[in-house]
Every structure is written in C-alpha cells, then in structure tokens.
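Entry 12.
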Amino acid sequence: MAKKNKEMLLVGSKTKEALKGSGKKTFNVSSDALEALNEYVYWIVEQAQKKCEANGRKTIRPYDILA
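Predicted 3D structure (tokens):
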C-alpha cells in the first residue's frame, strides 16, 4: 500500500532550527526528520479530535492536545 503524502503542517526552516539546537551542542537534522515529525503532529490532532468528540464537544481545548 502506497503511503499517502500529507500536507506539511510545520514551518520547515523554523522546525529544523529548533531541532538543531544552539549553544555548545548542535544536532544535524536528517532530510526525513520533518516528515516524521509532521506525521506525529497529524496523530496528535487525530487524538485531540477523538477526545473532544468522546466528551461530547465540538471545540478542541488545550487539555485535548496535552496529555
């Protein structure tokens, strides 16, 4: 089954900058790291929607996103 490409929800340059870090220790970021993080964000959104619906609401609240 082919993997469906999802629209990027992250600002690539800003996210890469945050992942790299700053100061004495910096990290390299692989070319597919943003895609993996984007998939995770989609999963978080889906979980928040399910929690909101399970609680009989239509408005997603911060506590639906944060565990």
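Annotation: Residues 8 and 34 are 9 Å apart (CA to CA). The radius of gyration is 15 Å.
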